[in-house]
């Protein structure tokens, strides 16, 4: 099995993100983030182990099933419909720009006091973000593997959109998904992968820090954390460190103080899946995007993907949610062995698993719709572009096809 397929496994992404972040917490560079915690390792049996158990249980159950017939190592991908989706996204975007009188990057340059949170129309903007993510990943795949490359102006427009809207979240999600897609399909060598990861990490830290300073001109991250150990560090490194450490610290703090509400219906967990228009009609405030509960620092109000379900169902909710994520992740990874186009779903799922150290993307309506679009693409029987040979699985007499023959993914 290729190295790339192993690295895009949701379990690998989840373990790397959580164990790496927990090790950063152990460094205790920010005393205010760890002074209330008895032991950061207490989150490992609550969050990490159930995820691994879920994946191993599905692996054990599927090991007794008949070995799947692997798809041939030539497959096809449908991207013609991206033109229609691009037109829809463009129409929505132009309407939002006219509605809000400009773009966040323009507001920042002229200094009119408006922020990126004021851009777009509630619910419609989330749908537009779904279309953008679908377009950006589709264009990335076509540029990487398709015989007909997307126009350069289209690639430039799509990839500059997070900069124009000053959206670090949108950029982070896409970059993680694109990295997972590239690793899964291309499976680069270990040396090339490490070098690329190092360069990408350095660039990401610099850009992330610059974006944080630009978006918060009247806010200093160094003053907010009051840490002598980080005063001389680059602001990008500090921003990344704080964004990784503070959510886990908030989660551990609320667990330690027993702040669970034990609701029968997990409203805290399910509310983000409801369109904001409906929530506003119900009198629910949607302007606050952070996490409720106790915070180690009021300036950083996020609490990983598990804080919402903890408020609803306590530690048992965290155990169940983590176990479910691991089980579903391994199941869709197995499906990618049967149908190579499923790798795009695996890549997106693994990226969301890595982001659980910061926030929950699985209950965000934008990401849920994105997975639905990807699944519809995978199920499509009409393909246009040919991917390069994937080399997934083994070739047998029953699935060998003539080179260049048109064939749908194996059901």
What's the SSE blueprint?
Layout: H1 3-7, H2 10-27, H3 31-34, H4 43-63, E1 76-77, H5 82-100, H6 104-110, H7 124-145, H8 152-164, H9 168-186, H10 190-215, H11 221-225, H12 235-256, H13 267-270, H14 276-281, H15 307-338, H16 343-354, H17 365-379, E2 385-386
Antiparallel strand pairs: 1-2
Q: Would you kindly provide a written description of the structure presented here, covering whatever features stand out?
A:
The structure is a single chain. By secondary structure, the chain is mainly alpha-helical. It has one domain. 61% of the residues lie in helices and 1% in strands. The chain has 17 helices and 2 strands. A two-stranded antiparallel ribbon has the order 1-2. The longest helix has 32 residues, at 307-338. The two termini are 22 Å apart.
TL;DR?
This protein is an all-alpha fold.
Cα distance, first to last residue? 22 Å
Taken in chain order, the helices and strands follow as: HHHHEHHHHHHHHHHHHHE
Helix content: 55-70%
- Based on secondary structure, the structural category is mainly alpha
Features:
single chain, about 400 residues, mainly alpha, two-stranded antiparallel ribbon, 17 helices, about 60% helix, about 0% strand, disordered C terminus
């Amino acid at each position: 099995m290729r190295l790339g397929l192993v690295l895009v496994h949701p379990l690998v992404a989840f373990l790397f993100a959580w164990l790496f972040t927990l090790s950063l917490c152990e460094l205790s560079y920010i005393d205010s983030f760890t002074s209330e915690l008895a032991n950061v390792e207490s989150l490992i049996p609550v969050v990490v182990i159930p995820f691994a158990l879920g994946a191993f249980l599905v692996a054990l159950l599927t090991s007794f099933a008949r070995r799947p017939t692997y798809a041939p190592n030539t497959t096809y991908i449908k991207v013609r419909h991206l033109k229609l989706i691009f037109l829809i996204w463009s129409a929505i975007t132009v309407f939002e720009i006219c509605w809000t009188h400009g773009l966040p990057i323009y507001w920042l340059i002229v200094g009119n006091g408006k922020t990126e949170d004021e851009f777009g129309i509630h619910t419609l903007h989330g749908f537009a973000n779904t279309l953008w993510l679908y377009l950006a990943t589709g264009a990335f795949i076509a540029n990487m593997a398709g015989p007909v490359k997307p126009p350069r102006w289209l690639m430039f427009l799509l990839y500059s959109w997070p900069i124009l809207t000053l959206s670090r979240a949108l950029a982070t999600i896409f970059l993680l998904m694109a990295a997972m897609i590239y690793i899964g399909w291309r499976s680069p060598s270990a040396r090339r992968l490490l070098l690329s990861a190092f360069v990408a990490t350095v660039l990401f830290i610099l850009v992330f820090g610059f974006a944080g300073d630009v978006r918060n001109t009247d806010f200093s991250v160094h003053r907010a954390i009051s840490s002598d150990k980080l005063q001389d560090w680059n602001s990008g490194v500090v921003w990344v460190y704080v964004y990784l450490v503070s959510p886990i610290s908030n989660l551990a703090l609320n667990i330690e103080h027993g702040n669970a509400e034990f609701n029968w219906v997990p409203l805290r967990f399910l509310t983000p899946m409801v369109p904001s228009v409906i929530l506003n009609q119900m009198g629910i405030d949607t302007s606050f995007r952070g996490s409720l509960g106790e915070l180690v620092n009021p300036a950083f109000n996020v609490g990983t993907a598990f804080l919402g379900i903890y408020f609803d169902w306590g530690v048992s909710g965290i155990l169940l949610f983590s176990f479910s994520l691991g089980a579903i992740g391994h199941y869709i990874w197995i499906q990618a062995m049967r149908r190579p186009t499923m790798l795009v779903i695996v890549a997106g799922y693994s990226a969301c698993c890595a982001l659980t150290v910061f926030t929950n993307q699985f209950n965000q309506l934008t990401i849920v719709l994105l997975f639905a679009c990807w699944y519809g693409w995978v199920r499509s029987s009409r393909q246009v572009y040919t991917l390069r040979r994937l080399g997934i699985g083994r070739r047998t007499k029953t699935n060998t096809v003539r080179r260049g023959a048109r064939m749908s993914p194996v059901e």
